[in-house]
Design goal:
- The structure holds two protein chains of two kinds.
- Chain A is α+β, with helices and mostly antiparallel strands.
- Chain A has four helices and nine strands.
- Chain B is mainly alpha-helical.
- Chain B contains nine helices and two strands, in the order H-E-E-H-H-H-H-H-H-H-H.
- Chain B is flat.
- Classes of the chains: A alpha+beta, B mainly alpha.
- Chains A and B meet through strand 4, strand 5, helix 2, strand 7 and helix 3 of A and strand 1, strand 2, helix 2 and helix 3 of B.
Chain lengths: ~170, ~180
């Protein structure tokens, strides 16, 4: 999927690509990521890993997402992380997480079955409750997510469509 | 079902949220507790029952549109997995419950002419691309992108087919002269 991300230094749009990633291509803690995407993807059932790279530097991973279809019917975003160089204020690129989440929502529309169609679920579980609340607030404000129960958040219908329009329709 | 309404809540934003890293995981949806699975199933069922027919139709239409967009952008597609414009039209018409003949009438084209476009006996035109886009509410350039993608796949297949075109070479012409 061709997308555009934003170069923070110049505010320019940069051509990028979301592509399926093999287990061997997935980032890990050794590369300063927070999670071992390679090991986790190997363990997950009905899951596919996606990488976001720019067209200019296709070997540098800017963000990573794992989409899972629980029991082959429930769309679930199992993992999302942006590269260490795209975190905090000094980040190289913006819109990386937005593009990956909007793409995951598209998959919920194309792959979700029955009642679960067009509902992208994910769980926000942090060690500290304070961090969990902050992260949920961020997903709610920035990505139109709503809370379902204690840890689960969902992106649905108009909210998801708006996300796709914002991040993928350029 | 009312008890589930209470736990569907908006999360209010805070200024401090900006400092949180955008990270989710690691979570395995397959390993959820039975209680959690039941709770989510009930919420999904309740939500789906409240969707209007227009919303359900819109989601089904978007599913076809997103598949088209993924198809156009997928470098792994090969000629044997080609998905023709007619196939996408059929998917949309199935959602709308409209048959091919009526669709031709709605976009003011003769049904047999439309079939000629499908069979590539006529060049898929910009006008037709726009008619499809407006009728199905898709981006205006999407249908043309599918056409170009499929022509490139056809080209790749012909190229791999062998030496059929090698004789068309200006160097050979110059040697003869």
């Amino acid at each position: 999927m061709k997308v555009k991300i934003i170069k923070t230094a110049t505010a320019e749009e940069v051509d990028a690509l979301i592509k399926k990633g093999k287990i061997s291509e997935m980032p890990s803690i050794q590369q300063n990521w927070r999670f071992n995407f390679d090991k986790e993807l190997k363990k997950l059932k009905n899951a596919t890993g996606y990488l976001l790279v720019t067209e200019e530097t296709p070997d540098v991973i800017e963000g990573c997402m794992i989409f899972q279809l629980i029991d082959k019917k429930e769309p679930y975003m199992a993992f999302v992380e942006v590269a260490p160089h795209n975190k905090k204020n000094a980040k190289t690129y913006g819109h990386v997480a937005g593009c990956l989440i909007a793409f995951a929502y598209q998959l919920s529309v194309t792959e979700g079955v029955g009642d679960y169609n067009s509902i992208l679920q994910f769980d926000v579980m942090e060690e500290k409750m304070e961090d969990e609340v902050k992260l949920m607030a961020l997903y709610s404000t920035k990505y139109n997510a709503k809370r379902w129960g204690d840890t689960t958040m969902v992106i649905m219908d108009d909210d998801g469509e708006a996300l796709v329009k914002k991040y993928l329709s350029k | 079902m009312d008890k589930y309404k209470k736990i569907i809540t908006h999360v209010s934003s805070t200024e401090n949220a900006k400092v949180t890293d955008l990270t989710i995981g690691p979570n395995d949806g397959q390993k959820r507790s039975r209680e959690k699975t039941t709770e989510i199933a009930a919420l999904a069922k309740l939500h789906n029952s409240k969707r209007s027919p227009e919303r359900l139709r819109r989601n089904a239409m978007l599913a076809v549109q997103y598949r088209m967009e993924h198809y156009v952008n997928d470098d792994q597609v090969t000629y044997d997995r080609i998905y023709a414009i007619e196939d996408f039209v059929k998917d949309f018409l199935k959602v709308l419950g409209i048959n091919k003949g009526k669709f031709a009438g709605y976009i003011e084209i003769d049904s047999s002419n439309l079939n000629k476009y499908y069979r590539s006996e006529r060049r898929f035109s910009i006008e037709l691309s726009l008619k499809f886009a407006y009728f199905f509410h898709t981006p205006v350039d999407l249908w043309l992108k599918v056409q170009i993608k499929n022509e490139l796949l056809q080209l790749q297949k012909e190229k791999e087919a062998g030496d059929k075109y090698r004789k068309y070479d200006y160097e050979k012409v110059l040697q003869i002269a």
